[in-house]
Amino acid sequence: MSFLTLGHRGVMGVEPENTLRSFVRAEEAGMDAIELDLHLSKDGALAVMHDAVVDRTTDGTGPIAGKTLAELRELDAGKGERIPVFEEVLDAVKAPLQAEIKDVAAARALAEVILARDLVGRVEVSSFHDEAVTEIARLVPGVRTVLIASRWSGDIVERAKAAGAPTLALNIRRLTLEVVEQAHAESVKVLGWVVNTQDHLRLARALNLDGATTDFPEIRRTGRFTA
């Protein structure tokens, strides 16, 4: 079974997260796919940022939803980088992308881009929200989806199946072999996040995970040789 390594918000351990600089670095490091986050701006642009507010990762303040794309463009997202929109990431790198959406509205906006640019084969869509996963699958036939969870109960595999998600992305610190085996028995893949240490990488291997999300390029390199 191949082990996939996903760059978390690019490679946020060494570059400003969710910036073109970070995504290019992730591609140069040979990541199998690049994970990013999407929020809608006030005027409906798919802004690439993890938080709902700009305070932590830029020199601005306030919610993304309260700012136009032009206003977001004025902010420094680290090392002089600007907040990109999803379409810019598509053009900046060639790697497969895993796009995390926060709600149904973002699902609808993302669906328009995927359909317009024929991205079903390149873009996988993830979310913590079952309804967002269900909505993107309804809008984009054949799109690959991922249900994310930090904490979960015994029905997590059933939730993934009900949402039509063939993959789960689960917090490595809470993952157990039992959950992984339950998922695999139902043909559901399991990714672990975030794997940033050799101990977590060994754990990912021991749990027979299908892949892991990491902040650091070296995890991809060493992951190829970790038994």
Brief description of this entry?
This is Glycerophosphodiester phosphodiesterase family protein. The protein is α/β, with parallel strands linked by helices and 227 residues long. It is built from 9 helices and 9 strands.
Description:
This protein has 227 residues and is α/β, with parallel strands linked by helices. Helix content is 34%, strand content 20%. The chain is built from nine helices and nine strands. Strands 1-2-4-5-6-7-8-9 form an eight-stranded parallel barrel, surrounded by six helices. Helix 4 (104-117) links the parallel strand 4 and strand 5 (123-127). Helix 4 runs parallel beside helix 5 and helix 5 (130-139) packs parallel to helix 6 (156-163). The radius of gyration is 17 Å and the shape is globular. The mean pLDDT is 96.
- Anisotropy-based shape: globular
How much helix is in the residues? 25-40%
Distance between the termini: 13 Å
Strand content: 15-25%
Topology:
Layout: E1 4-8, H1 20-28, E2 33-40, E3 46-48, H2 69-73, H3 86-92, E4 97-101, H4 104-117, E5 123-127, H5 130-139, E6 145-149, H6 156-163, E7 167-171, H7 177-185, E8 189-193, H8 198-206, E9 211-214, H9 217-223
Parallel strand pairs: 1-2, 1-9, 2-4, 4-5, 5-6, 6-7, 7-8, 8-9
Antiparallel strand pairs: 2-3
Helix pairs in contact: 4-5, 5-6
